[in-house]
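> forwarded from #structure-qc
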């Protein structure tokens, strides 16, 4: 199978197109030979850096979860018919947005034919259409749409990450995969010292954040429960956590989540910044 050039969606660096499952990906030139993850124990080593751009490059070569690796690469090879003429990223997705944000948006995982295709979370799918329209209306995004990684979109004082960096089958990562991937988020958060409000899109993102905060020593009692618009204050030195229904088709098509509901969450997140002073973590 021929391999065409596929630029990294954030750095523009050229990578080969997806190769058949089992043959492995060529190494990211930004990483050292010893940093290509092959087992769960390697994830923490892979993420060990104090530079956001390098973290993104390191995350892009993670192969710690065999089930997710097989799925993301299989989707990238077979492709959805409507995208048959397009290259697929088919790798883990790095966080993106402002380098020193006040608001952090935590999603579930890349969509198989969205982020897994475009290389940017919530980009190129219907969930992203809903999300970015709300972000734009509340002043957190430059444009109301996110179509591809070179579309000129930018987040304003905000950054977006996924609890799980690879597209999972049926959009359902296992608990073990979520826990393993938290190492990437843990390192990324350490490089974002001014995050004051976290908006978790969906229960999995909400619970993953609580799991990470527990790892960092937070002991909220009673344990916050996910709900749309819920605000949890875990500790005065930790970001406030907000819950928001995930903009999945299941939620938007049934009316469980409406555009005004999502816009209200991000509007509230911006207002909460005024009540949450910057504190060193």
């Amino acid at each position: 199978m021929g391999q065409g050039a596929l630029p990294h969606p954030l750095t523009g660096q050229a990578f080969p197109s997806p190769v058949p499952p089992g043959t492995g990906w060529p190494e990211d030139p930004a990483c050292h030979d010893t940093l290509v993850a092959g087992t769960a124990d390697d994830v923490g080593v892979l993420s060990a850096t104090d530079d956001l751009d390098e973290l993104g490059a390191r995350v892009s070569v993670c192969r710690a979860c065999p089930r997710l690796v097989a799925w993301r690469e299989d989707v990238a090879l077979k492709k959805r018919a409507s995208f048959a003429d397009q290259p697929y990223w088919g790798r883990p997705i790095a966080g993106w947005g402002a380098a020193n944000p006040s608001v952090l948006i935590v999603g579930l995982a890349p969509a198989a034919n969205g982020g897994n295709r475009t290389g940017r979370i919530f980009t190129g799918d219907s969930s992203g259409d809903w999300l970015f329209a709300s972000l734009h209306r509340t002043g957190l995004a430059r444009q109301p749409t996110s179509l591809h990684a070179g579309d000129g979109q930018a987040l304003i004082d905000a950054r977006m990450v996924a609890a799980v960096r690879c597209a999972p089958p049926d959009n359902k990562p296992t608990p073990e995969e979520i826990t393993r991937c938290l190492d990437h988020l843990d390192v990324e958060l350490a490089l974002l010292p001014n995050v004051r409000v976290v908006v978790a899109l969906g229960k999995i993102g909400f619970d993953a954040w609580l799991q990470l905060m527990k790892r960092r020593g937070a002991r909220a009692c009673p344990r916050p429960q996910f709900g749309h618009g819920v605000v949890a204050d875990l500790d005065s030195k930790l970001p406030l956590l907000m819950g928001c229904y995930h903009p999945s088709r299941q939620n938007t098509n049934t009316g469980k989540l409406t555009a005004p509901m999502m816009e209200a969450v991000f509007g509230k997140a911006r207002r909460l910044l005024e009540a949450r002073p910057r504190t060193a973590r």
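QC bot note: The two ends are 49 Å apart (CA to CA). The domain at 5-275 is CATH 3.40.470.10 (Uracil-DNA Glycosylase, subunit E).
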